[in-house]
Amino acid sequence: MDTNYFQTLKELNLKATPKRLAILEIMALKPVYVSPEDVWQEMRMRFKTIGLPTVYRNLDELASGGVITKIINPDRQLYYFFCQKKHHHHHFICVFCHRIEELDFCAIREMETEFERKTGSKILSHIIQINGCCKKCRKGNP
Amino acid sequence: MDTNYFQTLKELNLKATPKRLAILEIMALKPVYVSPEDVWQEMRMRFKTIGLPTVYRNLDELASGGVITKIINPDRQLYYFFCQKKHHHHHFICVFCHRIEELDFCAIREMETEFERKTGSKILSHIIQINGCCKKCRKGNP
DNA sequence: TTATAAATAAAAACCTTTTTCATTTACGGA
DNA sequence: TCCGTAAATGAAAAAGGTTTTTATTTATAA
Ligand SMILES: [Mn+2]
Ligand SMILES: [Mn+2]
Ligand SMILES: [Zn+2]
Ligand SMILES: [Zn+2]
Fold this sequence. Notes:
Radius of gyration of chain A: 17 Å
CATH architecture of the largest domain in chain A: Orthogonal Bundle
CATH class of the largest domain in chain A: Mainly Alpha
Oligomer: homodimer
Helix content of chain A: 40-55%
Structural class of chain A: alpha+beta
Bound molecules: manganese (II) ion, zinc ion
C-alpha cells in the first residue's frame, strides 16, 4: 500500500492540506466502507474546526480521482472505501458492519455456495448491473 | 405478460384501487426505468388529485411484493422497472435515456465486447456487488 | 516574502423521500 | 344492497442527507 499521500494529492492536482491528508490516512486504515458522516466524526477528533461539507467535497474529489471508490449500499446513501487492490475487482460488503472483502472473481451464481462455505458469510443478495450508453443515445453522448 | 392487475394486487393483499391499477398499467408499458416523480407526472394526467406520497408508497409496496424491481442508478435516487423476465436475471441500463435491456447472463467481463458488438451500446461501467452478512455479524442477525 | 488560486467553515439552501393526520375508499359480511 | 372497518389517500409538514453560497484562510509557486 502506497502511503505517500502528499504525492497522491499532487498527482490529482489537489493541494496537500492537513485535512486532505488526514482523510486519506483515516480511509486507508479502515477495513470497512464509511459515510462522509463517519469520516467527519473521526476528523473532529483531530481538528477543532472541520466542516461536514469539506469532508463531502474531499471524498468526492478523491473518488473522482480514483483514489477511493464509491460503494453502493441498499440504503442509497454515500459510502466510500479505500481499495487495496488496484486491478479490476469487486466487493463483498456486509450491510450490517460495513466490512468489505475484496474479490478477484467476477462471475457470481457459480461461486456463491463455495464463497459462503469458505468465508462463513451469508450472501443475502447480489447486484450485477451494467451501466452504459445505448445505441440511440450514442448519437451525441460519451 | 400477465395483465390481470386486479388479481396481482389481491395476491399481495392490497386493495385494488384505481390508482394502484393505473400505476401498474403505467409501469408495465415502459421500456425504461422510472422515478416516482415520473410516475406521478403520468398519474396527474389521469387523476385530478393524486399525491406524490401515494406514488412513493405504492411503488414501494409493489417492489416489496416483487411485482416491480428497484433499479440502482449512479445518482442514488429511487427508480423502478416492471421486469418482463421472471427468473433470475440482470439489466443493462442506459443512464441517459433510462432504457433497459433485460439480460439472461450473469458473468460480465467475458461478454462485454460481444454485448457491445451485438447491441451497439457502449458499456461505461458495471456493478457487481454481493450483499450479505459476514461471519462476525451472523451471530445475532439474519 | 508575496500574490494568487484553491480550500475551508459556517450557514443556509436544496431536494428527494417520509411522516403525520384527517378524510375517503374498498370490500367482506350482514 | 347497505354497513362497518381497516386500508388507502391528500395535503402539509418534517426529515435527513447532500450541496451551494460566501467570506475568510491557506498552500504553494514565483
Ligand atoms: Mn476494492
Ligand atoms: Mn428485469
Ligand atoms: Zn440510452
Ligand atoms: Zn458484518
